[in-house]
Amino acid sequence: MVVEKRKVDVAIDEIGRVIYGKREVVELLLIGMIARGHVLLESVPGSGKTKLAKSFAKVIDGTFSRIQFTPDVLPSDVTGIQFFNPKTQEFELRKGPVMTNVLLADEINRATPKTQSSLLEVMEEHQTTIDGETFPIQSPFIVIATQNPVESNHGTFPLPEAQLDRFLFKVDMGYPSEEEERDIMKAYLTEEPLDTLESALTPEDLVSMQEEMKEVHIADVVNDYLLRLVRISREHADIELGISTRGALALMRATQARAYLRGRSYVSPEDVKSLVPYVFEHRLILSMQASIQKTPTDVVRDLLNLVEVPVESGART
User: Fold this and answer.
1) In contact, 267 and 313? CB cutoff 8 Å
2) 115-135 burial by CB neighbour count: b if 16+ within 10 A, else e?
3) Collapsed DSSP state (helix, strand, coil) of residue 10
4) pLDDT tens digits, residue range 169-208?
5) Which CATH class is domain 214-306?
6) Is the backbone of residue 177 left (phi > 0), alpha (psi -120 to 50) or beta?
7) Does the chain have fewer CB atoms within 10 Å around its N or its C terminus?
């Protein structure tokens, strides 16, 4: 675990040469991949979402594919097709962009619901079905989807609840600080930092980390804290639809991955508390009255204040 922790720190620092001031976001991407989850990046245009995904793929030395979603993109453009080759008189597979380690689903909310749903099987099962035949997706695999805020766009198709629930995290990139933006302008003045990135991890490293992460211990007191947060989300007056069991399992896996990346063999209450906003906010559906006055961020803050944080560290005794 010590060796992998060193590699992870190098990987995060390397991406930091391209994406300034977003160390937490980079860590969330690594947590997502190690937890076998997917990440939805949301922010205004030009905030570095696409460049972050490309940098991530390069640093883990993984294969990379990109889909630029538009309303005319078809499901077969995502998954691939089998076509008849007249020269060989046989059907051949033309692999879709999902056959990769890192899939950038750019502006996913511009795709039609039918095309969006073509990602469901890939994200949940890590496999795709083409003309009735199932093909596995290589490991490790992560979908990094981007979308611009719906209120700033026309011609978008908001992701349905079933699709949103497949994303482990939803992360708002936000604007850089003034100092960070100044550093960005200096760095890009003479070169493209993305071109100079070096890999710090390998796909094999990440597959090993996915297995080792499962050994991270979750004490009963920490698991109970996590569960109370999930269950109170289903009872809160401002929430029409709370966190599903899939969401609870997603939070559990994410806390294990966070603890692992930080070199611990156990999940702490802080792991849970720090990840709840990223796991919960896109899964909650607020009541009509609450949605007028509050945002999911406000409601998640209320949930965290309602449930007492355990004083125990969560370490094995």
Assistant:
1) no
2) bbebbebbbeeeebebeeeee
3) helix
4) 999 988 889 999 999 899 888 888 898 899 999 999 999 9
5) mainly alpha
6) beta
7) C
pTM beyond cutoff 0.90: yes
Indicate the domain borders of the chain: 2-191+201-205, 214-306
Locus of tokens 């309303």: 71
Give the tens place of pLDDT for each residue, 254-291. 999 999 999 999 999 999 999 999 999 999 999 999 99
CATH superfamily of 2-191+201-205: P-loop containing nucleotide triphosphate hydrolases (3.40.50.300)
What distance in Å separates the CA atoms of residue 282 and residue 303, rounded to the nearest whole number? Answer: 15
- Taking only the tens place, the pLDDT of each residue in 34-81 is 999 999 998 888 888 889 999 999 999 999 999 999 999 999 999 988
* Torsion sign over Cα 301, 303, 308, 312: negative
The two structure tokens encoding residue 62: 């993984």
